[in-house]
Amino acid sequence: MSHTITVTINGKLESAQVEPGMSLLDFLRAQGLTGTKQGCGVGECGACTVLVDGTPVDSCLFLAVWADGKAVRTIEGEARGHELSPVQEAYLEAGAVQCGYCTPGLVMTTTAFVEKHAGKPVSREDIRRGHAGNLCRCTGYTTIVNAVESCLKK
Amino acid sequence: MFAVEKYHKAHSVAEAVRLLAADPFAVPIAGGTDILVKLREGHREYANLVDIHAMPELTPITLEPDGSLAVGAGATFTQVIESELVQRHSPVLAEGASWVAGPQIRNVGTVGGNICNGSVCADSVPPLLVLDAELELQGPDGSRRIPLRGFHTGPGKVARGHAEVLTRIIVPPAPTGSFGAASIKYAMRQAMDITTIGCAASILLENDRIQWLKLAFSVAAPTPVRCPAAEAAAFGQPLDAATIAAVQAAVAADVSPRTSWRAPADFRLHIIRELAARAIDKAAARSAQPGRSTA
Ligand SMILES: Cc1cc2nc3c(=O)[nH]c(=O)nc-3n(C[C@H](O)[C@H](O)[C@H](O)COP(=O)(O)OP(=O)(O)OC[C@H]3O[C@@H](n4cnc5c(N)ncnc54)[C@H](O)[C@@H]3O)c2cc1C
Ligand code: FES
Ligand code: FES
Question: Mean pLDDT in chain B?
Fold first, then answer.
């Protein structure tokens, strides 16, 4: 009952066989892309966030078949060689990473958030609401909000 | 792996209806934010899927010739929130949708799924109830249009035929004049939390008297409800403290809150009365805003 999907992952076009019950998260991890993390598995923690055609989704609650014909971005695609993406750099500078489990998901959420809000007035409250789908057990969030704020200023 | 047993991708509503009619156990899946969680929890009744995810036929948000707003059942919460038409015609629907979960869920979850899952905590339902929204359903015998009010028949139950697909949610034009609407969610956290009590109100004022009040709640009874007793208490009255108190007293006849781990029944009733007052207040304030006759 498997289906063939054609999906662009971090800029590279791939074709693969997936079962209809396979989540996008399991698909990505099976491709060796283990940067995307599973926390809750039911849409509550955001650790599994990836971008599908630029939109953040919880890949644990998203069927792999739905990615057919789409472009998926994961944390692996963000750095250019040894050069971090501006969002990753901002997380590093702001000290927004502790254990790091939430970080791949948060970086993807921030990446989409910054692209969407570039040049618009954004409050810290807006940043908090825009990141409400990502839980972090360690940082207390302030440093994360600082990191997002500094990205928006750049 | 989700325990999907059968899976068919539908390419049109007509095909989805045919696939559903052919399999007594099949269910439509749109955003999957309810169904995939249920499958993860081991509910086998969602194992046969007819996939209507992001079907182009189900996503448009349009203005009808009579001025009604038609929201495709497959529109995501984010599409509703960001729709200029929704903002202009019924911003209270965008307000209700913005209470749902977090961005990732709002990017995928649909208004149609929120209505059809029959959940008593659906955040898009109270605003649609006070706007007198109608539902358009397509089934094997064609299309029918019914009021949203009455569609919820019990906890987790709706009056959708097995092979019917909800295609559009239709919001009639707002009345001209001093009209305003508001939607409030009471939950323990500001985000990513299921509603303890949800409330929406719409109000039409004329010469400072209440022409009509429409009030609706989620999680206040076994289904989302409108409040005929509270609405009657406001009819024709001035918008003042005595009227609000009368509405707050009357609303007890419209609801039957229950005790759960989230909140005991008497606390829920307290919140219901408080939210009624706040929602009316907010709706009335919006109705008075110059240059903003629809809210
Ligand atoms: C972490 C998390 C947080 C959440 N928080 C909230 C919240 O705060 N507020 C809230 O209201 N909800 C919340 N939800 C629930 C869920 O996101 C919503 O109910 C959403 O609207 C469901 O839509 P969907 O398209 O994902 O539905 P699906 O899971 O695809 O379907 C839900 C039901 O509707 C049926 N269905 C879907 N579309 C149609 C159609 N067009 N015609 C006929 N039947 C259809 C399906 O068969 C199924 O029975 C949350 C869910 C998660 C996972
Ligand atoms: S693992 Fe997907 S949201 Fe928690
Ligand atoms: S850094 Fe540990 S969960 Fe966020």
Answer: 95
